[in-house]
Amino acid sequence: MKLLHLIRSLNPDGGGPMEGIRQLIPHLDQLGVETTVACLDPPGSPWLDEMPAQVKALGPVIGNYGYRPGLPAVIANLAFGHDAVIVHGLWQYHALAAWRALAKSNTPYFVFPHGMLDPWFKRTYPLKHFKKLCYWPLADYRLLRDARSVLFTADKERLLARESFSYYKAHEHVVAFGTAAPTGDPSRQRQAFLDHWPELKDRRVLLFLSRIHPKKGLDLLIEAFATVKCWDSRLHLVIAGPDSTGWRRILEQRAVELGIADHLTWTGMLRGDLKWGAFHAAELFCLPSHQENFGIAIAEALACGLPVAIADPVNISSDVSAAGAGFIHADTKEGTEQALVQFLQLTEEDRRRMGLLGRQLFDQKFASAQAAQALVDHIKCAC
Q: Domains in the chain and their CATH numbers?
């Protein structure tokens, strides 16, 4: 089988879909699938070499929409000889170009919306939603309507997708999505992380690892942390991730006002052993997102046996709750605080048991090997 993945960008700063593709490819290889990834990044972009597959960089593009003249013809030529095309994401020109190239072709295509149909965006950004309403019947509605399947990574995402737009029509299917388990020596990785940030030695680390973006609810976590830090003077909040909106400066100032600046460490984006070391050094992973389709970092935390505290709008929260692998809370300051208090009341044995349950959940549902097999099985069935 030959698959062509089409995505706006492979820049890792963009979040989970890029990492999910990167982790999926080696497992597809093991199943005999030959993978090509096409993106609209300019050739020579430094992150392209990290993709374990043949990459076609089709940029540069014009504007935030990612317009590129002649893109439908380019996609049609790339798709020739592939058994299927998988389109990742909506609301960018690569998605419309894919529909123009493939809707009437002999090559079936599938679409991963990656949470972009969630009604949270409609409520939070009404002006942007109005623009999408104008665009919807001419572009993404048709893309979804004519896809062989629209692939959702959780049943919650599938149900929410029906609430944002009228005339929604799609052949819906829920398919696993995941990431790879960590490799390397956990003790060595933990020590490498602590050597890099020695102020964290002998601290009880709570870890936020995601983009610094208002959607992620980091402000709620900082406010809640300020309330609970009196439980234990060793508590320390590590904030790891790229600042995609310039929000970090505002949050740093708020931490100063709350008197907790000395209890926060901002690491920037972590990769490799330092990232895994952060997971292994932490006692709890926190992500109080207002909207989260899947959450690659949540799966990575579970893979490390790290209990998680995540907000209910995270689409895999029901899986975490059912497995007993963490705390599910409202995406409010009070809800986040309550989850932190519940965590602090656990015994060490309770935390260890919760971590083991999280690792079991990862192995059963969120490992890349299972995701690759599920994807291949569905494509074979749908085609």
A: 2-179+367-382 (3.40.50.2000), 186-366 (3.40.50.2000)
**How is 84-126 classified by DSSP, letter by letter?**
EEEEE-SSSHHHHHHHHHHTTSSS-EEEE-TTTT-HHHHHH-H
pLDDT (tens, 9 = 90+) of the chain, 383 residues, equals 999 999 999 998 777 788 889 989 999 999 999 999 999 999 999 999 889 999 999 999 999 999 999 999 999 999 998 999 999 999 999 999 999 999 999 999 999 999 999 999 999 999 999 999 998 999 999 999 999 999 999 999 999 999 999 889 999 999 988 888 899 999 999 999 999 999 999 999 999 999 999 999 999 999 999 999 999 999 999 999 999 789 999 999 999 999 999 999 999 999 999 999 999 999 999 999 999 988 899 999 999 999 999 999 999 999 999 999 999 999 999 999 999 999 999 999 999 999 999 999 999 999 999 899 999 999 999 98
Task: Indicate the residue type of 161.
Answer: A
Integer Cα distance of 174 and 293 in angstroms? 12
DSSP 235-301: EEEEEES-BSSS-HHHHHHHHHHHT-GGGEEEEE---HHHHHHHHHHEEEEEE--S-BS--HHHHHH
Please give the sequence-ordered ranges of beta strands (E in DSSP) within 68-212, or none if there are none. Answer: 84-88, 109-112, 149-152, 172-174, 204-209
Which amino acid, 66?
Answer: G
